[in-house]
Amino acid sequence: MKDVNDPGDDDLARRIEALGPWFHNLRLGGIETAPGHFLGDFPRTKFERFAHAIPEDLSGKSVLDIGCNAGFYALEMKRRGASRVLGIDHDEHYLRQARLAAEVEGAEIEFRQLEVYDVGALGETFDLVIFMGVLYHLRHPLLALDLIREHVCGDMLVFQSLQRGPEQVLEVPDEVPFSEETIFEKPGYPAMYFIEKSYSEDWTNWWVPNRAGTEAMLRAAGFSIEARASEDVYICRRAQVPYAQWGAGAAYPARGAAR
Ligand SMILES: C[S@@+](CC[C@H](N)C(=O)[O-])C[C@H]1O[C@@H](n2cnc3c(N)ncnc32)[C@H](O)[C@@H]1O
């Protein structure tokens, strides 16, 4: 019988190739799944920059990885001892890869096809939610953050978004008078760029925040920022939703209503 962890395993190599193309460069049985990745050894080198900010021992903790792709972060959290890890993604192509990765690694991880907007259907909260590399792919990014805060994040959120624009962060006062227009032109004002067409050869990029915009949205959705663990990765905690009296919080249309 063949050992799936044998680097020379032709059968595993064939399965990996048949499930391509891969976005996560994993090492499965010694075989790299995306050796020519345009970001290098991705996401391993990215993870190395913020891995220290996530508890090393996750024993007894539950983890939800939203937009899990081929499961790199789900596998890493399982390695840290998490008792339950659920990875969700709306793309079955990536979930097939994730299932193979978990099989090869012998990791007990559940993978389920689900839209981020449907996290309420899980009916469960998780100690740690990973929401990395997804926000800018969404047409309704703040709604997704609101729903994660309302339905699935029990304590910690690890968040990442592509960011563009200035690095500065302006301290915006609680009230800005109607006559004040120049503040919007300041580089540190929270902003998101709307991408109507393709960016980086990807038509699924819709909104890219600047740094101030990322941080303001996290706070407005009810997350306190504990650390900026690397340039675009944030460690957050579930907190009170601020400005709730002004209508903040998840708002979504009634489902199943007659058209
Ligand atoms: C850029 S990849 C990021 C993968 C991984 N989280 C990471 O940071 O390396 C975006 C992933 O999010 C998934 N995704 C995009 N929009 C989604 C949505 N609305 N609901 C669930 N998953 C989504 C994509 O299928 C893809 O696997």
Provide the list of bound ligands, each named once. Answer: S-adenosylmethionine
Number of strands: 11
Apparent shape: globular
Number of helical stretches of at least 4 residues: 6
Helical proportion, percent range: 10-25%
User: Sheet bearing the most strands, described?
Assistant: 7 strands, mixed
What does the model show?
- By secondary structure, the protein is an alpha/beta fold.
- The protein has a domain at 61-172 and 179-242: Vaccinia Virus protein VP39 (Rossmann fold).
- Helix content is 23%, strand content 21%.
- It has helices at 10-18, 44-50, 72-79, 92-105, 141-152, 211-220, and strands at residues 27-28, 31-32, 62-66, 84-89, 110-113, 126-132, 153-160, 192-194, 207-209, 223-230, 233-238.
- The strands form three sheets. It has a seven-stranded mixed sheet, with helices on both faces. Strands 1-2 form a two-stranded antiparallel sheet.
- The longest helix is centred in the middle third of the chain and has 14 residues, at 92-105.
- S-adenosylmethionine is lined by residues 23, 43, 67, 69, 72, 89-91, 94, 115-116, 132-134, 137-138.
Question: Would you summarize the structure shown here?
Answer:
With 259 residues, the protein is of the alpha/beta class. It has helices at 10-18, 44-50, 72-79, 92-105, 141-152, 211-220; strands at residues 27-28, 31-32, 62-66, 84-89, 110-113, 126-132, 153-160, 192-194, 207-209, 223-230, 233-238.
